[in-house]
Specification:
By secondary structure, the protein is α/β, with parallel strands linked by helices. The protein is built from 6 helices and 7 strands, in the order H-E-H-E-E-H-E-H-H-E-E-H-E. About 25% of the residues lie in helices and about 25% in strands.
Length: about 190
């Protein structure tokens, strides 16, 4: 059962750097090194630091960010983005800000042709005390959410919230992890 944060403040309506920081360089560099010559849509790109990291290996990166005053290629809601329009869709520490997480992940999967990557804080470590998070996920909850779109996924964890030095884990090891950062690469094909 998800625990919703009663103090939640939705960043989609806040411009500028309020509630945002460059906190995902490890995850972004990891995906940028992993994918080669792919079109990538980074949803909830925030300050836009992901473009240079994801564009490694000749990847073509498009940024989506609904918040006012923040630079992005796409400002519209992801529900309006065309089906199968990008090979990969990423959301680095975004899903914990989304009121309808299941609809969100289904839109990500609808937009991609090959797969999606999601990172999020581990509820077992942080207990959803961040006022900008509507919820956080226990490892089994992230697996359950992933299974709403595919049963083909790879689970990752990191020892820090910056997403540096990701480690691939088995489902069993992932369920028991106390690493602070969780990641899942969900394949469509």
């Amino acid at each position: 059962m998800m625990r919703e944060n009663e103090e939640f403040v939705d960043l989609a309506f806040l411009g500028g750097s309020t509630g945002r920081r460059d906190s995902q360089p490890g995850w972004q560099n990891f995906i940028g090194r992993t994918l080669i010559k792919k079109s990538i849509l980074d949803i909830g790109s925030g300050l836009g630091n992901s473009r240079s990291r994801l564009s490694q290996n000749e990847n073509v990166v498009t940024l989506q960010e609904p918040a006012p005053e923040l630079s992005a290629d796409i400002k519209e809601d992801i529900s309006k983005i065309q089906d199968n329009s990008f090979q990969f869709v990423t959301a680095f520490d975004v899903i914990e800000h989304i009121p309808d997480d299941e609809a969100f992940i289904k839109h990500m999967f609808r937009i991609c042709t090959e797969g999606i990557f999601i990172s999020t804080p581990n509820y077992n470590v942080f207990k959803c005390k961040n006022k900008y998070h509507i919820r956080e996920y226990k490892p089994e909850e992230l697996i359950n959410l992933s299974e709403t779109v595919s049963n083909k996924f790879i689970l990752f964890v990191c020892n820090n919230t910056m997403g540096q030095y990701p480690q691939k884990l088995s489902n069993k090891a992932f369920l028991n992890t106390m690493h602070p950062a969780l990641g899942v690469l969900i394949k469509k094909v």
